[in-house]
Amino acid sequence: MTPVAAVAQSVPERHYTHHEGRGATPHRSNPLVIHREITTLDVRQGMNVIEFGTGSGYSGALLAELVGPAGHVTSLDIDAYLARWAGLIHQERGVHHIRCHVADGTAGFPARAPYDRMVAWCTPPLLPQAWVDQVADGGLIVAPLPIASVPNMTVVAKIRVRDGRPTVAQVFTGGYIEATTSPKTDLDLPGRWVDWENRVPTPSWISIAWRDADDHGNTGARTALGRLLSKDAYAEPYEGAELDWPSWRTFAAAQADEQLTAAGLRPDLWAIGHSTLATAAVVQQDGTLLADHPDSPSLAVLRGWLATWEAAGRPAPETYTPVLDRTDRGWALRLSR
To answer: Which residues are part of the catalytic machinery?
Structure first.
C-alpha cells in the first residue's frame, strides 16, 4: 500500500466533499486522480507544502496527514466560500497544521516560503515565476500546464527545481479548471482564451490560437464559430477507430500550428481543429468532423493532422519530450517528439 493510500483510510472523503453544513461542492476532482498527483509529489513527514486550489478541502487533508504535526500545509483558493469552509472542516477534525487562505494562487504565498512541495489543482496560463522562486532548492512542483494557447490542451507535469531553474521530470495525462482571478461560477465554459461565445439559443464558444491576428471586434473568431454552427455546415464521421481524446489533443497541441482552434459547439462536447479568416474545421469528441464546406482548406489540414497522428501510433502524452521555455512572465511548456 502506498503512503497516500494509507493516509486516505483515515481521511473521510465525503465529510469534505459532501459536508452537511456546506453541501456538495462542485469544485472537486476524482479522488483517484488526487491520489495520483499527491503520490507523484512524494510528500514526507515534516515538509512545508502548499496547494493551489483548496476545493472541498480533501486534498489538503491528505497532505496534512502526510506531513504530520511537524510539517505544515498552506492551501490557497480564489473562492472565499470554499477556503473558509475547508478551514472550518479541518478545524472540526482537529487538524491544526493546515491553513486555508483566500488568495490568487498564481502569485504563490511568500509568507510561508520556501516550500518543499507544491501541487496545483487549477491550471495557470504558464508555470509562474513566483512558484519557481518560492520552492526550496531540490523541491518538487506537480501542476497541470497548458501546451497550447487554447483551452483544454494540458498535461500534468512533475517539475524539479534546482538552482532556481525548473526541469520537467515527467508529464502525464490530466488537467484541471483554469486558474482565474475571481471565483468561477460557470464550470462548462473555459476560464480563459475564449475568443467568442454565444449564450442563445444554446451555449457555444470558440478559441483561436491566431487571436493576435483577429480584429478588435473578434470578427475572425465570431465568423469561424458561425461557420461551424451553420445549418449548412458539412459533416462527416471520422473513419478511424474511436478517438483517443487525450492522445489526439496532445498531438494537436504539439504541432504548435498558429491556426489551431478549440471549440464547444454543444455542452460537454469539445472540438479541436483548424481555422482561418476564411475557413474552419474541427473534429468533435464523438468523432464527427464539421467544416464550412466539403472542400474546406481547413478540413484538408485537419484530415492531414489526423492521418499523421494515426501513422504515429496515437502517441500517449507520456511519450513526448517536455521543455520549459523562459518568458517574461514565467515558463511555458512545449512538447515535441
So the answer is: 29
